[in-house]
Each structure stands twice: as structure tokens, then as C-alpha cells.
Specification:
Length: 191
């Protein structure tokens, strides 16, 4: 039984038109295999780039975190990893002496940083303030105006600008992830 079926499927029994069609199908399959190999190579390259960007993002975030921590430690005169109201006041006074052209009302206050109102500023609160200021500045730029507190964000710009680079890496990483998903989706739809 099996031999008859195999013989019946032989190209020699179909004639020259059928043989040409089968040869064309083999060529199409061969071309599709080359396309699949190219797509697999692209996927591999994107995955490699993705890993490189993840590493760069991680390193950038670590550098930004280190810079933020170093900035946080400047007013911490006694080195106890929290900033008291007195330490903050001394730091701002020195800062104001270094930048006399900035009006005092434009500087952030201790209460701006002391989110939980316990009289101490932790590194986490410091980070949260910088993050909130960055968001406010982004909204201000989109709106083309000033935030509710006037220009206070301008005086504290140097405190949170260093985190902007991490945001750019994240946006780039997200964009590449989206492209990869679209290409993978396209590959599956064509099959």
C-alpha cells in the first residue's frame, strides 16, 4: 500500500508542468528559508543591542544614583546619612553665597525635601523631591509656562538634571523593544 502511494506522488508521474510547479515551490521554500535566516539574524542583532542598552542604562542609572548620593551627602555635615534642618540651612546659606544672583525665594526649602515631616531628610526623600521637580519641569516645558511655585524649579535644576540622561536611555530602550516586537509580530504574520 505505502509503495503505491509514494509512487503516485513521484514527480515523474505528474508530467513536466507539475515538475515545474514543484521546482517553483522548492525555490519559493528556499527563498523563504533565506528570509527566515535573515530575520533570525536581525532578531539576534536586536537582542544583542537590547542587552547593550540595558547594560548602558544600568550603568547610567548607577552613575546618576552615585551623583545624587554625593549631592545628598554635601549638606550631611555629621555623616549620619540624614539631613537635619540645621544642616540643610547651612548648606543653602553657603549655596546662596556661591550664587547670589538667584533670589532666596527660588531655592527649595527644607520642608520641600522633608516629605514625611519628621524633621530629617533621607536619601529616599531627596530622590523623591528631585523626581517630582523633574516631572514639574517636564510639564512646565510642555505647557510653555511656569509651575505653581513660580521659578523655584529653576534654582534646583542642578539637583535633578543628572537624572535626565537615564530617562533618555529608558526611552531609547523602550523604542527598540517596540521595534523588536513589531518585527517579531510581522515575522509570524507572514508565515
Amino acid at each position: 500500500g505505502g509503495g503505491l502511494l509514494a509512487g503516485a506522488m513521484s514527480p515523474a508521474l505528474f508530467g513536466s508542468k507539475s515538475k515545474k510547479k514543484i521546482d517553483q515551490l522548492y525555490k519559493v521554500i528556499s527563498m523563504k528559508n533565506v528570509e527566515i535566516q535573515k530575520l533570525n539574524t536581525m532578531v539576534y542583532e536586536y537582542e544583542y543591542q537590547n542587552q547593550e542598552l540595558k547594560q548602558a542604562l544600568y550603568e547610567s542609572e548607577q552613575e546618576a544614583l552615585q551623583r545624587d548620593y554625593e549631592e545628598f551627602k554635601q549638606p550631611d555635615a555629621n555623616g549620619d546619612d540624614v539631613i537635619s534642618r540645621n544642616e540643610f540651612s547651612a548648606y543653602i546659606r553657603n549655596y546662596m553665597k556661591a550664587y547670589p544672583h538667584i533670589p532666596p525665594e527660588e531655592y527649595p526649602t527644607f520642608d520641600d525635601f522633608d516629605m514625611n515631616r519628621d524633621g530629617l531628610v533621607t536619601f529616599q526623600e531627596w530622590q523623591e523631591y528631585l523626581y517630582q521637580q523633574q516631572l514639574a519641569e517636564q510639564q512646565q516645558q510642555k505647557a510653555g509656562g511656569y509651575d505653581a511655585r513660580g521659578q523655584k524649579a529653576t534654582a534646583s535644576a542642578n539637583l535633578y538634571d543628572q537624572t535626565a540622561q537615564a530617562q533618555n536611555f529608558q526611552a531609547l530602550y523602550d523604542q527598540l523593544q517596540q521595534q523588536l516586537k513589531q518585527q517579531q509580530g510581522g515575522q509570524y504574520r507572514r508565515s
